[in-house]
Amino acid sequence: MQAADALRRIAFLLERDGAETYKVRAFRRAAAAVDQLDAAELEQLASSGGLKRLEGVGDTTGRVIAEAVAGKVPSYLAELEASEPVALSPQALTIRASLKGDCHSHSDWSDGGSPILEMAETAVAIGHDYLALTDHSPRLTVARGLSAERLRDQLEVVAAVNEQLAPFRLLTGIEVDILEDGALDQDDGLLSELDLVVASVHSKLKMEAPEMTRRMVKAIESPHCDILGHCTGRLIKGKGREPSRFDPEAVFAACARTGTAVEINSRPERQDPPDDLLRLAVGLGCHVSIDTDAHAPGQLEWLGIGCEKAVQAGVDAASIVNSWPLDRLLEWAGRHGSP
Known about the structure:
By secondary structure, the protein is α/β, with parallel strands linked by helices. It has helices spanning 3-16, 21-35, 39-48, 59-69, 75-82, 90-98, 116-125, 148-165, 188-193, 209-220, 248-258, 275-283, 303-313, 326-334; strands spanning 101-102, 130-133, 169-177, 196-200, 227-228, 261-265, 288-291. The chain has two domains: 3-82, DNA polymerase, domain 1 (Orthogonal Bundle); 90-334, Metal-dependent hydrolases (TIM Barrel). The protein has 14 helices and seven strands. The longest helix has 18 residues, at 148-165.
């Protein structure tokens, strides 16, 4: 194994396991440093004990590089490969095997940590047929949300990635903020050009239930809204955050009526909707989309978390939109609004 490949694989596995961002970045920085050297230079530094002279290389990354240069599988990599993520039930494994893509992901154009191409290449590597790139919209300034101009620039980058990675398809998209009045935070004409739109509430999460319900229903009824993202906004790890209050029957009935999918957000700290609300959505006949909301390549492996939630809620496999082939997914999104 090449040293840079070993370092990047470790970064990927750390992301999969939810490690702190600074640890992941340390391995990616070291990989970038190794990329600047040819094999002879790297071997000379390893044999002379000079690896730490490279910018971004420390004790742990230096050991990984030295072991790889010596022709060994780095011990740290072997440990991570041996530590399997949480085992899935047979039913969840069946759903996971049926998924053909992921409809919610972020790149370093907004608050993700990796370039668009790297996210797409990782999706290819784990067997996806497609991945929706859904960076944030302009109102979410803390996440460097995309203005209309930046989003149009991004569409050109996506087109170039698709030329490079065909037949894999990187879908154009956005995670658009649902504003306080229920409007979507991006130009309607531009939204109509995108393959897929995830609409989410990110602000005023403590709004009173009647107002929040009206806000969400209005967004769901937009012809541009394909998926309702992390519907309660809750966080269940760290300091946590209470779920938003709204009338779930009214919200999910609107999703069923318009054909909008309810997202099962697989991020470990979200796992949204809560189980009781997900069962309600299923009972009302909603489509679902099992997504990672990945902000880094390794997080694309989190789909299994959402698959387990789907099993517990009795989700009909036929209702999972990202189990559909690409043509059917695009047809559904394109005729959105029809029952």
